[in-house]
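Section handout 9: paired folding examples.
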Amino acid sequence: MRTQILALLVAAQAFLAAQNVSKLPDWAAQAAVLPADAMAPADADAWVLLDRTEIAYTGSGEIRQRRFRLVKVLTERGTGQGVFVLHGLGGKASKVKKVKGWNLRPDNELVKLDSDNVVTMNDVSDAEFSTATLTGAVLERVVKGSYVAFESLESVQSPLGPIADVSPMESVPVRRWELEVAKKEGWFTNLQSVDVKLDRRHFEPWITKTEALGAFGFRVTDVPALPRDEGGHPHLFNVLPVVMVRFLDPALPIGRMWGSWDEMARWNLDHFVPAMTPPGMADLQGRKGLEGLKALWAWMGRSLTYKQVYLTPERGWVPEQPLEVGRKRYGDCKDLSAFFMAEAKGLGYSSVPALARIVAGEIEPQQEPFPVFNHVISAVRLESSLGLAAEVETPKGRFLLVDPTDPLTPLGHLGSGHRGRKLMICLPEGAVWVTVPDKAILMDRLQVRLEGEVQGSQLKATLKLQETGSYWGLRAIAQQGGTKGVRDSIMARRLDLPATAQVEVARLGDPLDLTKAFEVDLKVTHPEGFRRNGGEFELASWCIPGPFSLIQKAGVARRYPVSMDGFGELSYHAVLKVPSKVSPLLPERSAESPFRAFTWKAVSRPGEAGTILELDLDHRFKSARFDFDQRDKGLQEWKKDRTLVKSLLEDGLAFKPAP
């Protein structure tokens, strides 16, 4: 039997070796020839033998980008490598000039890419109005054992200038990754004064050794695949390796912007200055000063809508004229910021834009300039303090930070997406960096008051919710979807309810009334809200935070850092009438982990026909991070936290019969 297995293995190896790689283009045929000791990484579905990117600056802001890619398909799941995708800006900003593809199958048949299998789709951005494009090329009949090769050429004329970024890591391992950058001069093009800048970020610990390639490029071998099934990590923008390419062309005004943060600040400010004519559309009822700003804020919240708008890629970071924003009644972050600043000018306030990054990782200002910002807010210059939490003092004066895309946060505060983030205030003299103060962030809080009565196993209850900030996002849900939106969200995501449960929204506060917490009153019927399980009773875990999900596959070493941006406070108080005599299994518990802290208390007292239960939980999420050198500790703390919370739910919501 052993002899037969060896014979089969030898035969299989000979069959694979018989593939005639000379049928592939020369660059792919050379990459397909591996040393005798080269072995594909274990558990890989495909192996990228070569991924090469060539980026050339041709002058006048244009970049030509070529891509060469050869993949060996190792399993059936790896056949998805037969799809090649290029993301474009649309309009005149980018154009795919060439896409070629080859599939060398194990039987030596060569399948080439047909033009019918190259499709460009428009408007593929998450934005509500966009001209972003996606070009997909599909090679047919890719199977296990195929060599898949692609070659592409793009012309890119970005509205932000001659810049590009590329990353070496992907979902499958890469044997050889190459980047070569050059200035492509023609007969009438002199690019001697153009500086080429390559910035490598976050290469360690993923990549520790590189080899120079050409004047400005480099080569990396044996790039690991991205970790699988790992959650609970920082945003990958701040973790994974990336190369940022800049061509600093003194003949190109926008190209000069990437020479320094000061240049970037001035460039952005210059594009907001023409939009500073007050449109006079906001009804301010003659108010001035702080009252005028509050009236402007309230009017914008009622009258204008935030939408991600990228109508043309040529527009870039240039805001719409405020008069047009007011006419259309919507705009993106730069449009609404320009509108706010223009109307504030009519109140006597001078404002400038401030560039931010929210949701998608954090800005690293110690790095070289690059378009890392994804949000614009307003910085209102103050001669003296208005007494608002979102004021910052800088070497260039005092400013009030305002985010006009967030009308559900009161003026003088910022939403939780800005917590701890760095902002770049754009002044005529250059960039001023500030960190958003903790006091500026409106704390996310939820107060829950539950009163219920048990009949058999059915629990009928009233729930009174008071939300500050965006603990559950109820204010925003009510603003967008009204009563039905709140009910559907609570049914689907917030309460532990079966399909047979009933939920009625008895009262809904005004989401635009920012003078007080947002309130929702609910009537809920749960058919098994207090059910018997063996010798105990179990209460449904309404509103109580559950354990975090698993973030690591068992038996696999952790590779990402462990991180949780956990903020928010919960105050839970429940009074339940139970027909039988019961007592809490867990009368008290206080506990703390790196990710949370809580105090639990459960009291039972005799009622008219059974027991009255009073339950209290004060719970606070915490932010924690364990970097690469502490990721194993972070993983263990995460597991301990899961055990802690599961124990609270199992014991705290369990009740035993009392004599």
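Moving on to protein 2 of 2.
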Amino acid sequence: MRINVVFKACVSGLFIVNTSMMKSNFYHLITPAAMNAIDHAAAQSGIDSFGLMQQAGQAVSAAALRLYPQAERIVVLCGPGNNGGDGYIAAQALHGCGVTVCAFHLGNPQQLKGDAVKAFGSYCGPLQDLADYTPKYGDVVIDALFGAGLGRDLDKAVIDVIAQVTKANVPVIAVDLPSGLDGLTGQPRPVAFRAVHTVTFMARKPGHVLMPGRQLCGTLNVYDIGIPHRILKQHSGTLALNTPVIWGDNLPGLSGASHKFTRGHLTVFSGPMHATGAARLAAMAGLRAGAGLATLASSADALMVNACHATAVMVKQVDDLSSVEDYLRDQRLGAFVLGPGFGVGEKARAFALALRTRMLVLDADGISSFKDQSQVLFDHFSGDPVRLVLTPHEGEFNRLFPDIAADRTIGKIDKAKAAAQRANAALVYKGADTVIASPDGRAVVNTNAPAWLATAGSGDVLAGIIGGLLAQGMPAFEAAAAGVYLHGEAGLRAGEGLTAEDLVLAVKPHQADTES
């Protein structure tokens, strides 16, 4: 109870903590390199960099008091750089509030530089070497060893501490990013703290949203420590969270003059008689995404199966390449989905290449059909505008881009960007941390998808949503990003235990909050 009272006094009088969240419309993901440039630009503009460090450290101490007022001891692990400086500020703030606190330093604190030296000098509580830390019952750890800028594997001494803390099940509050986590890729190097809460500053970093980093961060708060947003935007680049801010202006709208022919026509190619369900899911999703018409292009053997199950979706017999070319004489047919349940092989390749002048979502079997022949696909869809959307999961990505997939020096975002540029396609690199990339270098990371979307048919629905948006005239990248987001929203709306049929019925594209 004493600490609760002290906490209220601290945040209201003894020191001031700016705990305001970043404005929700700042959607950029800031890479560690860009964050360094932002810090430098802020200092060059005349902003007191040590004042920023004080804001950061005090925000961390406030989070610790709010989350763990019952802590018997708060242990602050301080690294050899500015992240450690944030830790010393937090430790002093806690010490000044009467909390039992001890700082443990990595390396020689006398060798600290810049603002970190001032932060260390301001701390007047207990101090020990990191190697002397043994977790105790009642401890809460503030991890201020390394932030998002870690670019190497951890030393054994730090790995050992992480192992001890993890084994003791001591709660960890991470400063900027759990130590050991690569801020650019979200991958441990080779291990990282598992935080219950992470406090970062000004903007999310890629490591906060990519897996497994997203899970290792616990709950995340982004605190505005006072760097002007104009400076952030100057260095933000083309990487962002996937929100309606990215594509909302391109989202198809309805008016009193709208009718089915103004809303576009989506065609989905069906698989054989025993594998028609995936295409029907995609076609229905396309209609739910706003397309005015949807047609299942079906071989003769599957025609009656599809006709018996389809109501709002039309059925057209398309057996071979010749019938595809005949079907394409209708120039109103602008968007196609090929792959769900279609089958792998020459037929899929021939159909896909025949669609090179139309907007195409190539999914599932369509992607796998181009294993070892990917360049043929890419050559056919070269040039402007971008007409191809690829939607691979991990295995399909490996088949289409084996060399990029095997490159361990880059993370998922850079892999997606490299693949999009090579293919001249909007690329949806699926997973719990789906990355959508454009050939022009733009990329977004999606975070709104619930875990229960991992169910049979979910990917078919996604392909259909994207196809439906393409049919209405959205550009490839914007349609892909919007489709992934709307797919996630539909999953949240349908709820845990959903089936793909439930998911289709939950798609509501025109309810996207374009102000977020």
